[in-house]
Every structure is written in structure tokens, then in C-alpha cells.
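Annotated sample (chain length 460).
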Amino acid sequence: MTKKKSTVNENANGEIPISRRSWLKALGVGTSVITFGSGTATSTSDGYGEGGYGEGGYGDSTDSLTVTTDGASDVGETSVTLDGSLTDLGGASSADVSFEYRKTGVSTWSTTATQTLSSTGSFSASLPGLSDGVDYEFRAVASASDGDTDTGSTNNFTTIEHSVVVSTDSTTDIGETTATLTGSLIDLGNASSADVSFEYRDASASDWTSTSVQTLSSTGSFSASLSNLDDGVDYEFRAVASASDGDSDTGSITGFTTVEPTVNVWTDKATDVGGTSATLNGSVTDLGNASSAEVSFEYRETGSSSWTTTSTQSLSSTGSFSETVTSLTSGTDYEFRAVALASDGDTDTGSSVTFTTTTIANDPVIERFSVSEAGSPNPHAEITVVWDVADADGDLASVEIDVSDSDGTVQNVTWTLSGTTASDTDSFKIKHGGGKVYDVTLRVQDSAGNAVSDTKSVSS
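Output written by the structure step:
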């Protein structure tokens, strides 16, 4: 630290004038004798030293301009902020402060712009346009308004080197034993090119395996495809870059997991679909790592909430399998799916496939048919017919009743029907028909033309 020394002028007699302040100081030290010799003032107990205003006395001022060099902040590749403090103005009213800086090893200093401070405190200066990766030194300087100057100690900083930058990106096309690694060369730094590659390993391993090197002369993405990996295993990888100027960078570590082979089952089409039965078909296309798999089918009427499960078959190799189901309802929509449970615990369910059972043309049936006559002795015949008919297909069309004697039909009536069942009680009165035998025929027909009939005789 360089300080400007204060001076004291002698009078014409070669004596140093003593001020009132100095006189009081002298009186206050407790000495009994103060001698003013030729330019001297003596005291034995105040520490001002012999010689009055000469050296060791009031000749050196205790207040002087003081500046300190603080640190460097916001250090970048080409910029920095220099910090300093004006800790004492001495007897001056203000001081001009600045910084001197240079590359380490260079003989000449560069100076920042001057700032004028009228009180003590910190100050700073921002420097742009520096060289990256270079050692610099700097110092704070101050020049007071009364002519005093001071220079702080020399401090150092190093700008950040502009270097190659690489990032680890995502993994694509992950298979059971394959994967594609991707990365990006973000910055070449000061280099003209960079060699890039990937390092990868089993997540539980300690050693890395490297992919082949690619040379890039500009920033951008790059990738590498891996094969011969183990299935169902956790891996980790990172991108690495080595620039032509010797700089290097390594991206963050990213993980991926290869696909584990598992049992795979397909639902195939139903075959031999009839009115009440069908054959369900499926295929096991992969056993994964298992030695065998239990396979079966689940089926239900479309829209139903619960499944019916067929018996289980055991397969020790891939291939097709089938199961015939019965007791289905004709003309009904069904859905089914193949399911598999592998010996290693893996499971799979195929997609649902639909089929419709065929419609069976059922003949209508006569469930009840009775004929009676009133039997009273009168010249007329009074015949009563009671009947119930049904059709499983639900397509009843008509019921016909024919009453005839030995001469032929005496009465005939037909009713149009619909649905699954029908019933009625009908009466037939034949004038002067007493004393004869009548044949009553009931005939029922469905919309498909299928018909059944029955005949009963009654005497009047």
C-alpha cells in the first residue's frame, strides 16, 4: 500500500510552531516539565516521543486515504465484476476510484472508468470483452481530492473457459435386446470438431461399455443403436464428447429398461358355430421366459357382465389351441377371449372376438288341447275347445280350429298370432246338430311355415 507522507514546515528561526491543540496535548500528559528547545517539545509519558513535531510525534498523520481490493464476482467466459472498498478518505472530501487489470504475466495495466466517491464504501466495475479461460490480476486504486493516492493489493481471477458441451437425451426403440441412445452436442467451445459417443452399462455394474465414436464438426443430435442386451434389465447411459482442442464433457446419466419377454396369447375366430354350440380358437405366440403356460377361454353373451371360463389346457410350446362350448342359445351374440398364465407368473389376455349362434327353426307345439260338449238333451250341439300353443323361436303366426262331421266341415275359424305363446277357450254351437259325432282339429303354424295339428272327437 502506498501512502503520501504528511509534512510540517519550520518557522523562520528554524523552530516548529506548536499549535494550541498540541500545547493542550502536551499539558495533558502529566509531565511536570515541558521544555521548548530549538524546535523540540519533550514528554516522557505520552508516547509522542521526543522531538516535538518531528518524527515520532505529530509528524505522521493517523488519517490517510485507504483503498482495498476485494474479490471478483459474476465471473463468466468473457466478463467479470471487480469489487473494491474505499475504507478511509483521510482528510479529503472525495476520491476518484477505479481498477487496474491485466492478463497475468503481462507488464502493462488497463484501467477501468473512474468513479468519484465522497464517502467511504464499496464500489465495483464490470469488465466485458475478456478472453475465455485466461488468468487475470487486478487491483483497486484511489486518488483523493487533497492529492493523496493509494493502491490496494493485487488479486486474481480466471475467466470460464468456453468448452465443448454435450447432453444425454432419451432412449428410443427399446426392445427385448435392443435400444437406440440419443444425445446432443450443444457447444463446440473453441474447437473445430468433437468426437462423440455413449457409455452404457447394466445399472448394477461398475464398468462402462463405449459405443463407436462419431466425429461432428457442428452442433446437433447424434445417436447409437445397441444390440445384444439382456431382456428385462435396467440400463444406464451417458453421452460423452472429446473436442479437437482437448476439452471434454460428459452428459448426465439416464436410465432405461429393456422389454421383458412375456407370455403372449391371441384370440382367433370361432369355428363350427351352430345353434347351441361353437368352437373357440386361440394361439400362444410367445412363452416369454417360461417353460409352459396354462391356457383357456372366457366367453359370455354380448352385453353380459360376467364371464364363463372353459377348462384349462397346458402348453409347453407356442401354437394354437381350441375348446368347444355347448348349451348356447340359438340366434344369440357372444364374445370370447383367450387367456394364458405362464409358469413364471406372467399372464396375458387376448382381445375379445364375437360370434353369433345360428337360429334354429323350431316347430310350434300344442301344449294343451281339450274338447267337450254340453251333453244336454236338445236338438243342438254345443262344443267347447280349450287350447295353449307355443313356439321356441317366438314366431307364432296363426291358430285354426276346424269342426266337421261325416258330411264335412260345419264350422271353421282362424286367429292371427305373434310371439312365443298363445291360449284361448272357444265355443261352437251347431243348430240341430245333436246326436252326431264331430271331429275337432286344432292347427298351429309359425311364420316360417312350420305347422302342427291335433284332432279330437266328441259326441253330441
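Annotation: Residues 20-27 form the longest helix (8 residues).
Annotation: The chain has five domains: 1-62, 65-158, 164-257, 263-356, 365-459.
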